[in-house]
Amino acid sequence: MSNKVFELMQEMGHEQIVFCNDPHSKLKAIIAIHNTTLGPALGGTRMWKYNSDDEAVVDALRLSRGMTYKAAISGLNLGGGKAVIIGDPSLKGEALWRRYGKFVNSLNGKYITAEDVNTSASDMEFIHLETKHVTGIPEYMGGSGDPSPYTAYGVFVGMKACAFKRWGNDDLTGKKVMVQGVGHVGQYLVGHLVNAGAKVYITDINQERIKETIEKYKVEYVDPAQMLTIDIDIYAPCALGATVNSDTIPQLKCSIIAGAANNQLAEEKIHGRQLIDKGIIYAPDFLINAGGLVNVAAEASGSYNQEKVTKEVEKIYGRILDIFKLTEDENLTAQEAAMKIAQKRIDDIANIKSRL
Ligand code: NAD
Description:
With 356 residues, the protein is an alpha/beta fold. It contains 13 helices and 12 strands.
């Protein structure tokens, strides 16, 4: 990989990668900054037991690129970045987070971090001891806390827009929805769906979360291995990426895919087209899951207002419908249409910034 990093950066358009190493705290982190045309690169820090350093680099590159488009399409003045920490999340602690905070601080605000998979608001609290360039810190410290409820609300709103496109109305009553992954986002999404009268199925690999969700919402559990055998209306991927791929697409029995996971399509071009051929409506992940980013961006701006954030998140509905219109006008996949709109905003603002 080492001789391919620049090749990959050039191919995907990255500005910078920072490798952080601290044997004392056992920190091994990669901060990837994709594009800062619109503003500082904001994106969460993921902690994961990667099988190799290469896998971690590719994850950081893909995730940070997604953040650029997510911020752009959401009308935010932020660039795209993301960080990954290679390690066992059960071993995280103060020393690791504070050392990591120092690395984030060394970038002088070019990168702003937040939560992601396996990182929480209390981890951000440790990072905050070493840098101010962190969002999603707990409410009692003046932050906006866990962004997941906003991500989930955005997914719910976006799902309703997909329903409107598919069935001519956005009522989810009786619609069968499979939520894959009932973690931070999935749990809240299940709540919205149950309130809306949907018939919700859940699948997960974490027994505690399954138990908690069933007890709270009385939803039906489906074993992950059986997930694709169930006839559903909507599939909501809320676990990890690449679950929409050449193996799963032929088996999927749904009309809509709308979920929170990043990088849902294993290969954007191939699988986006396969979904169209199968008649499945797909909500571009970086658009539908932008609610959490909208929330932490409001916190980073220094003037947080919950009501305003909710209204901003609700704009996902109209944006999804705009994307679908463009797919028809220009024969694009939903992902391509979303990227086109996002890239146009980046180019337009770059042009404005270059003028006096
Ligand atoms: P999380 O770690 O809290 O939850 C993920 C859940 O998925 C866990 O319960 C885990 O057990 C489950 N899971 C893992 N592998 C699975 C499998 N093979 N089958 C079924 N379940 C599986 O993460 P989260 O914060 O809820 O985020 C979920 C997804 O949404 C991630 O891809 C994340 O990048 C994305 N996302 C999250 C946010 C946010 O605000 N948290 C924002 C944007 C995007």
